[in-house]
Amino acid sequence: MILIFFSLCLGALLGALFRFPWYVFFPAAIPLWRKNKEISIAVLFILSGAFLYSLGTLPPGNYELVGLVEGSRVTRVKVFQGEWKKVRPIRIRTSKDGFIYAVGYYDGSIFHPSYLKELEKPSLRRLREEFSKEVRGTAFSLLFGEKDNAVYRSGLGHFFAVSGLHVGIAFSLYTTLISFFTWRRMYQELVALLLLIPYVLSVNTPSVLRAYLTILLWKVLRTLGFKTTPSYITATVGSLMIVLDPTVLFTPSFLLSFFVTLSILNSKNIFELVVKAYLASLPFLCLFFGETNVSALLFSIPMSFAVIPVTWVSHLSFLLFLLGLKTPSMVAADVANIVSFPVDVLVRLSNMMPIIPLPKFLFFVLIPVPLILLFDIRGIIRRTSGRAIL
Q1: pLDDT digits (tens, 9 = 90+) for 159-217
Q2: Residue 206: what pLDDT?
Q3: Would residue 295 count as lying in a domain?
Q4: Is there a domain that residue 48 lies in?
Q5: Could you tell me where the DSSP H helices lie in the chain?
Q6: pTM > 0.85
Q7: Residues 91 and 179 in one domain
Q8: Do the domain assignments include residue 277?
Q9: Where does the pLDDT of residue 33 fall: very low under 50, low under 70, confident under 90, or very high at 90 and above?
Q10: Contact criterion met (CB below 8 Å) for 166 and 212
């Protein structure tokens, strides 16, 4: 499944770089089937990724559009071309978030609005905004991935980026709470997954979607009696997300989430996990952020323990707010901010450490690192070279 995941990634990259009717090459994978099934599968999914990327992409030109801006990216995009037509998500040059109507020029990479208006539209983002009016501080930052300059400079920002850690903590909290009402594990997990939906949709980043879908698929397959592995589940979710939206490949959240996760899944202890996570993230730090803090390795282990109680209580606060219990919710948020003292101390200590610049060209030098860290990369190479069977 990892081979399929990387083939789709490569295909989406080719589709973004070259506009071409890639489907004409599909018959080329058929003659390869008898010689090497693995190469044939890889070619098929590379072409599929390129073809899927070409569907619904927006050519350069002047447009009016509506959509949801999330982190300089417009999702749920519709453009007017005689009639309103749905297209793939695109990047936009704006600092606003939320539903927008805009008129401007799309250069093939970024939409440059000459006119932009925010739209009032009901969504779970409003729930997040209402919660933010009541809660501030580290509790809210950890819950929704809000990072200030101090967190960015600390090199510990990945703990504030909502990912598998946060979703896993929320899932354990909800199953624990439901266990007071039923002893059946299946019911506990089902209700916990349902309660997670408002939180996942209010954050709505590739990393949180990856974490939620991974838990969901893991539980479904386990209930049905299928044997699987975490790497297989992660690669399956990644492949599904690329099939549904190939443009997600070019978001920092997706790249960091999947490549780092796949690199650390076979870690034997927390020390190995921290080192692998840092090394796997380095090429993407070069590409998107241009710097790193040497404290990332020094403080990642204590930070991983310090954020757990804060995130646990923060999720409890959000759940109470979701249920309409505002007073208990605010009390829980205050408790979360109190127990976040070690987190704040570690961020301040990290900011005392030197920041190392990372030129973008290092991305091309370091990108093999997350591939090498994949525990079965040698097996994939052997299979694609014809020395083993799938």
Answers
A1: 777 777 788 888 888 898 888 888 888 888 888 899 888 888 888 778 888 888 888 88
A2: 80
A3: yes
A4: yes
A5: 2-17, 29-35, 37-54, 124-134, 138-144, 149-154, 164-178, 185-203, 206-223, 230-244, 252-264, 270-288, 295-322, 326-339, 341-350, 362-366, 368-373, 377-384
A6: no
A7: no
A8: yes
A9: low
A10: no
